[in-house]
Write a structure and sequence with these properties.
Layout lengths: L2 H4 L10 H11 L4 H14 L3 H13 L4 H5 L3 H9 L1 H4 L1 H8 L1 H23 L1
Helix pairs in contact: 2-9, 3-9, 4-8, 4-9
Keywords: Membrane, Transmembrane, Transmembrane helix
Membrane topology: Multi-pass membrane protein
GO cellular component, one term: membrane
Length: about 120
């Protein structure tokens, strides 16, 4: 059985309604084979907000800004690293906003996966 045909959202733990809306909007424009390619691409790139929360907490006790590196924001990660998370204030703000940071990243990955799926056919 193909897991993507039964319930494709099972491969996306912790999916939010906003994220689901972006995914469904992208899928509406794809054929079935493109949708499979989209799921494979997106599930490998997607980040879970719980993981980003854990990486942000690591910023307090270890390497500040590691969550920014995980989200692909290298310049911000370096700024956090060299300023100790803007004296931990930036890290505290990111702790509060971890879900929106993750949603923003996942929106970019939906768009990127959508573009790859369109080209794959």
């Amino acid at each position: 059985m193909d897991m993507y045909q039964n319930n494709p959202y099972m491969a996306l733990p912790g999916v939010t309604p906003e994220e689901l809306g972006y995914i469904q909007q992208a899928l509406a424009q794809l054929t079935e084979s493109q949708q499979k390619f989209f799921y494979m691409s997106y599930t490998s790139k997607r980040k879970n907000s719980q993981d980003i929360l854990i990486f942000t907490l690591i910023g307090f006790f270890g390497v500040a800004g590691i969550h920014r590196f995980v989200l692909g924001q290298t310049v911000m990660g370096l700024l956090y690293l060299f300023t100790f998370g803007f004296c931990w204030i930036g890290t505290i703000v990111d702790l509060v906003n971890n879900k929106s940071l993750t949603l923003e990243y996942n929106q970019k990955m939906v768009y990127e996966s959508f573009q790859m799926a369109k080209m794959a056919s």
